[in-house]
Amino acid sequence: MEKSKVLIVGGTGYLGKRLVKASFTEGHETYVLHRPEIGVDIEKVQMLLSFKAQGAHLVASSFEDHWSLVEALKLVDVVICAISGVHIRSHQILLQLKVVDAIKEAGNVKRFLPSEFGTDPSRMENAMEPGRVTFDDKMVVRKAIQEAGIPFTYVSANCFAGYFLGGLCQPGLILPPTDSINLLGDGNQKAIYVDEDDIATYTIKTIDDPRTLNKTLYVRPPQNILSQREVVQIWERLIAKQLHKSAISEEQFLASMKGKDYAEQVGLTHYFHVCYEGCLTNFGIGDEGAEASKLYPEFKYTNVEDYLKRYI
Ligand SMILES: NC(=O)c1ccc[n+]([C@@H]2O[C@H](COP(=O)([O-])OP(=O)(O)OC[C@H]3O[C@@H](n4cnc5c(N)ncnc54)[C@H](OP(=O)(O)O)[C@@H]3O)[C@@H](O)[C@H]2O)c1
Questions:
Q1: What sequence ranges are listed for the domain NmrA-like (predicted)?
Q2: Share above pLDDT 90 across residues of the chain, in percent, rounded to a whole number
């Protein structure tokens, strides 16, 4: 089967650049949206040029220019959007409604993967303020996609390893400590950690796969479904040292959010749902979904121990 041509929107982002790389690696003709709003962001320009040097087609288009988006979409079969959606960086999820409008107009797109890549928003209808905005906005985009009859795959990638493993699941920390650790609650709630490069690879593997058409791809590498305590134990083994442990109760955690700025509060509520409530692991995958490591068993994903080795 001929491999789909892919357009990556948000290709210079934290996940987006990995999607571009994975798309090359998996042998897809790869297009990357190049927005004029990039201005004099020299890092982004250099990154786009390096994509071009590796064979990507840069497509000039703006979210502010509907027809330029339509023209860009007409070049490809599959569109993957990795637009920003982390408040401490930037949150532009609803801008994707413009992509949805352009996909409707273009009429040729065989599959759209919107910027999701985290907790399944359809399971977060009872999420806390203010962090629920992430899930609510992603659901608005889903509704628009489905109302327009656009074929889709949603990727629920669980915890980006860099954010969650980096700080051993402590919010606001992305480097592992060597002396002490704050456990969230009893530290026994299971979460799922995925190397961002692996998220990109699974995402690209799924785009031509009929088994994930109009479904959610859940990324649940079995070795990486661990509690915070288990993650800490792996780190302690790697550094051959025990960390001093303190526990933060639910009440203390929620109280600590007061007075923090909005973006931090959004992130903290996400940690609360993951690490205190277990929102990533408290459900089974039904007919509306499929699990990545089962679909693509030949792909050797990075386990938590190997991921953490880079910090030693
Ligand atoms: N599960 C997790 O732990 C986790 C962690 C982080 C992120 N995520 C999710 O992953 C997705 C991508 O997040 P990210 O952190 O990779 O994003 P990011 O690096 O913050 O941004 C990605 C790209 O979005 C585009 N963008 C930003 N502002 C824009 C604007 N005003 N108009 C048009 N495009 C704009 C830019 O691409 P260009 O300049 O190239 O157009 C940017 O490089 C989001 O859905 C997020 O929620 C999940």
A1: 2-308
A2: 100
Residues 6+ apart with CB under 8 A from 290: 211, 212, 215, 216, 217, 218
Catalytic residue among 21, 138, 205, 215: 138
pLDDT digits over 43-61, tens only? 999 999 999 999 999 999 9
Please tell me the predicted confidence (pLDDT) of residue 270. Answer: 98
Q: Which residues line ligand 1 (CB under 6 A)?
A: 10-16, 33, 35, 38, 44, 63, 82-86, 89-90, 92, 95, 115-118, 157, 159-160, 163
143 is catalytic: no
The answer to pTM > 0.70 is: yes
For residue 279, the CA-to-ligand 1 centroid distance in Å is: 22
Q: Are 31 and 6 in contact (CB under 8 A)?
A: yes
Q: What does the DSSP assignment read for 58-77?
A: EEE--TT-HHHHHHHHTT-S
